[in-house]
Specification:
Layout lengths: L2 H21 L3 H12 L6 H17 L6 H24 L5 H18 L7 H18 L3 H8 L4 H25 L5 H9 L1 H14 L5 H21 L2
Helix pairs in contact: 1-2, 1-10, 2-5, 2-11, 3-8, 3-9, 3-10, 4-6, 4-8, 5-7, 5-11, 6-7, 7-8
Length: 236
């Protein structure tokens, strides 16, 4: 990886960590398309690895707002669907993974923009967990289904619960990827190298997350997802 590529990736990771730390979502939506454009081989291990320390931090910071019931149902469904996500990864040709990430990102963003307000129940939790298990294991992008479920809940609840669900799921997905030979240690190394950029973005989010208009921030993330997803599909 060239110095210029690494610098672009570091800036992207810092910006994405700030956005997710402040709004509760957006890291994978921002990083996965950019990483896919720079080096499709980074997906999904790089994104999954980078998100672990970020979600650990956010879950701890917002722990008093955690929705334990919702997190439990989502996590159970997400873990059940993880092997199917691995099968999806095997089924997608390596050269097409970027296009799949882009298409999934655009679709999720469009759905998130038009879905009406609702109060989530067990069915919504289970459905979000299954879809997240499929998409996050295969591509590193799993936030949109959880955002759909919690987008009308208090910002603290969204941030805490999404972070906790991500944390468990990312560890499970990485373990399965490496056990089956689909993970590259080098991709984890790039994520560790960019920890300072991740920490900087997360720290900056701490300064604004209580004052930020969560609706506007989520709208920004979804618009960015549309643009980056289209760019990723066009570049493959």
């Amino acid at each position: 990886m060239s110095g210029g590529t690494l610098a672009v990736l570091a800036l992207t990771v810092a910006a994405a960590a700030f956005v997710q730390g402040a709004s509760g979502l957006g890291f994978a939506l921002i990083v996965a398309p950019v990483a896919g454009l720079l080096d499709p081989g980074l997906l999904p291990v790089f994104v999954l690895t980078a998100m672990i320390p970020l979600n650990l931090y956010v879950a701890w910071r917002e722990r008093h707002s955690l929705d334990l019931r919702g997190a439990g149902w989502i996590t159970a469904a997400r873990l059940t669907a993880t092997p199917a996500g691995l099968a999806l990864l095997w089924a997608i040709p390596a050269g097409s993974l970027g296009a799949v990430v882009g298409a999934a990102t655009v679709l999720a963003a469009v759905v998130s923009l038009v879905v009406p307000s609702f109060v989530p129940g067990r069915g919504a939790y289970l459905g979000a967990g299954v879809v997240t298990g499929l998409t996050e294991t295969a591509t590193g992008v799993g936030g949109p289904p959880l955002a759909l479920v919690y987008q009308h809940r208090p910002p603290g609840e969204l941030r805490a619960t999404v972070a906790a669900c991500f944390l468990v799921g990312e560890v499970a997905s990485l373990a399965l990827l490496f056990v089956t030979g689909r993970g590259r240690p080098a991709d984890m190394g790039w994520a560790l190298l960019l920890l300072p950029a991740l920490a900087a973005g997360a720290w900056l989010s701490r300064l604004v997350h209580q004052r930020l208009d969560a609706r506007r921030m989520r709208a920004f993330v979804l618009v960015f997802a549309l643009v980056s997803g289209v760019a990723l599909m066009a570049g493959t």
